[in-house]
Amino acid sequence: MNYYTKETNFYGNLSPEKLIERYGSPLYVYNESILRERCKELTSFVSYPDFKVNYSCKANSNLSLLKIIHQEGLHADAISPGEVHVLLKAGFKPKEILYISNNISKEEMEYVIAHGILLSVDSLSQLEQYGRLNPGGNIAIRLNPGFGIGHHKNVITAGENTKFGIGLENIPHIKQIAKKFNLKIMGLNQHLGSLFMKGDIFIEGANLLLKVADSFPHLDFVDIGGGFGIPYQKQDNEPRLELIEFGNKLSEMLTKWAQDYGKNVKVMIEPGRYIVAECGVLLGSVHNIKQNHSTRYIGTDLGFNVLARPMLYDSHHDIEIYKNPPSCKFDPHEKVTVVGNICESGDIIAKERLLPKVDEGDIIGIMDAGAYGYSMSSNYNNRLRPAEILIDLEGKDRLIRRRETLEDLMNCFN
Ligand code: LLP
């Protein structure tokens, strides 16, 4: 079994055992140098001059991580007032945020307008509502190009079976409504879905959007979406998304399009997962081991309230076992099912996984947990959300969000 954390020197001079001892279990651990590396990869993989990376902060909106991402020169997309709130606190300027809305109220629209943030609408009716609220204003439009991509049906966000975007057949209506309220269409955006591992499919989608953009002569930007995948099965040598060739092809297409369009147009992408997934490991503790019929269960404190992806999408995360104490020897592998402490039988992190023999007291590391981990965590079963810590560039650990307390559960009551 290859250990990603060894290859990347993830913990540096620290160790999972020490971190759990210090901050408790479960624990989200982030590595700053990996985070910065991923930011740099995406800000530089395209040579088209007016290219911008908007970080999609639904993947992880920890304030300290957002500050680092902003320092690396990324802008952001937001989908809720809550996301806007933390982005502004992290130092993002209103002009650096694109609000990609879906089914929002009049009040939410007013919130976005009042903060001077550009809104993208994804229905004709919401465009009308915006026109009534802010006649003469600037707006962006989220289109649905007719096909989508994604690692699971629930995360395909374009095509026929999704609530998102305005179909291309509605373009004349978009223009009519914009004219009626004297709105300036600043940009077009799309998001095909979450997680592709081959650039060609993304380029195909981008090409479609650029063709549509030709019929909007006064655009400031085109946002071709996120979805950049990471290899979740590193222990089985899953290859990475090949960025160099992908970037070259994309740059060539964008440069040619911009020449024909005849105006300098900013091109944006909106990745979430690629930026933060690999800088995060979720640590937990093994509390119980039992055999139920033919299944050997490894019982941990990593319920789906802490990491929902395996339960929601049947997602795979590589697992590392850290013997505790570390001097213990590894025994031969065995097939086990790793589960959490939530009161549902589907509370499974890994089904029938071959792992080094696990004992009670060992520590378990769930790899690539930085995206859609903490951000999708909950208080189900009245369990508390874990703490988050950062290993900084000097290799020092620092608390970046404290563990919840029982009192936090009472905060919303009168
Ligand atoms: N832009 C829009 C409009 C989106 O809806 C999303 C993700 C993104 C950008 C960023 O996508 P990414 O680059 O992270 O793939 N919870 C699921 C993923 C849901 C993605 C939702 N939208 C998961 O854990 O796999």
Description:
- Helices cover 29% and strands 24% of the residues.
- It is α/β, with parallel strands linked by helices and 414 residues long.
- Strands 1, 11, 12, 13, 14, 15, 16, 17 and 18 form a nine-stranded mixed β-sheet that branches. It has an eight-stranded parallel beta barrel with strand order 2-3-4-5-6-8-9-10, surrounded by four helices.
- Helix 9 (199-213) runs parallel beside helix 10.
- The radius of gyration is 23 Å and the shape is globular.
- Ligand LLP binds at residues 56, 58-59, 77, 100, 155, 157, 191, 194-195, 226-228, 270-274, 309, 313, 372.
- Residues 56, 58-59, 77, 100, 155, 157, 191, 194-195, 226-228, 270-274, 309, 313, 372 line the site of ligand LLP.
Could you say what the CATH architecture of the largest domain is? Alpha-Beta Barrel
Domains counted in the coordinates: how many?
2
% residues in beta strands: 15-25%
Molecular shape? globular
Give the averaged pLDDT, no decimals.
96
Please write the CATH class name of the largest domain: Alpha Beta
Tally of alpha and pi helices: 13
Radius of gyration: 23 Å
Largest sheet: 9 strands, mixed
Which key terms come to mind for this protein?
Lyase, Ornithine Decarboxylase, Chain A, domain 1; TIM Barrel; 2 domains; eight-stranded parallel barrel; 29% helix; globular; binds ligand LLP
